[in-house]
Amino acid sequence: MSTNLHPMLNVAIKAARAAGAVINRAALDVENVRVAQKQVNDFVTEVDQASERIIIETLLGAYPQHGILAEESGSEYGNKNSDHIWIIDPLDGTTNFIHGFPVYCVSIALSYKGKIEHAVVYDPSRNDLFTATRGRGAFLNERRIRVSKRTQLKDCLVSTGFPFRPGDNLRHYLRMFADVTERVAGVRRPGSAALDLAYVAAGFTDGFFETGLSSWDIAAGSLLVTEAGGLVGNFTGEADFLEQRELLAGNPRAYGQLVGILGKYSKFAGVDDKMGVQAALKQDTAGEGAQEA
């Protein structure tokens, strides 16, 4: 552990690496990993659970009075009344993992009185460690990282996540996806929101947007982005995003332009914008019907 880092960040790194070791061992024989389905297209494995256990044990071993908010066990462990809450996704990208597709990570963030103070995103398959502490910058493997400097959306590479749960409005998303795709150099869908945000922070991509995300998907990654000089918010550009289930991140210039495209699709959009989107969706549906006829 580094003596230059905040002690709480060092403990989070220790927890993330321990979880990563569990994941890497399981990845050697992924076909024998037991998989359960929480709901359609939403999976949990024994590896998620084992990874979460070792993270919680490590964190509470060092800070027994802290609280825990974890994807699989919720607030079952730790002190629910603590000002310090560890927000944990033990294996972000489970669907990728169970298919042997090596894009997944461990995500750990520490919230103090509602603000994210420390963040770790660890990619065990590449041994890439992204870290950040509020006010101290963001790092990849101890090297300082910054968001990209691209200023024109037509030159930007943007990542996203497709809706996959029952009840998600796929048609609404596809129109939003088309609006972005037409204006950028490329769109990617890696399948791990925490890594998507880490890649924005490192300048590998210029922006990221997705709906339906939970706080454990984005808590650590959001601090990485802001500490790397980027912006994070909802689709209308408001910074209060952690519990809103829509997220946009990017370098400052890309972010501003993406707000201009995505704002009308936000659940916080004005009535006129929402009516315009609905009219466009109806037009799409009518067009598809005419083609089929």
From TrEMBL:
| Chemical reaction(s) catalysed | a myo-inositol phosphate + H2O = myo-inositol + phosphate
Q: Which GO terms describe its molecular function?
A: inositol monophosphate 1-phosphatase activity; metal ion binding
Per the record, the GO terms for biological process are: inositol metabolic process; phosphatidylinositol phosphate biosynthetic process; signal transduction
* Residues the record lists as binding Mg(2+): E71, D89, L91, D92, D217
Annotated signal peptide: none
Q: What class of enzyme is it?
A: hydrolase
SUPFAM superfamilies attached to this UniProt entry: Carbohydrate phosphatase
Q: EC number(s) per UniProt?
A: 3.1.3.25
Keyword Hydrolase appears in the UniProt entry = yes
Cofactors demanded by this protein: Mg(2+)
User: What family does this chain come from, according to its entry?
Assistant: Belongs to the inositol monophosphatase superfamily.
What's the protein here called? Inositol-1-monophosphatase
Species of origin reads: Comamonas terrigena
